Amino acid sequence: MKTHLKQIFIGLFLILSFSISSFAKDSVTMYLDEVEIDNKELKLSIYGSAESEDFDSHKWQIVNIEVIDLKSNTLDFEVESDKRGFWEIEDIDITSLSDGELLINATMVNEKNQELGLISDKNTIKDTSFKLDEYLKEHLAISIFLLMVVLLLSGFPMMIPLIAGTTLGIYLLFDGDFSKMEFLIQQMMGGIRPAALIAVPMFILSADIMTRGKSAEKLIDLVMAFVRHIKGGLAVSTAGACAMFGAVSGSTQATVVAIGSPLRPRLKKGGYKDSFILALIVNSSDIAFLIPPSIGMIIYGIVAKTSIPELFIAGIGPGLLILFLFSIYSIIYA
Question: How far apart are CA 208 and CA 212, in angstroms?
Answer without folding.
Answer: 6
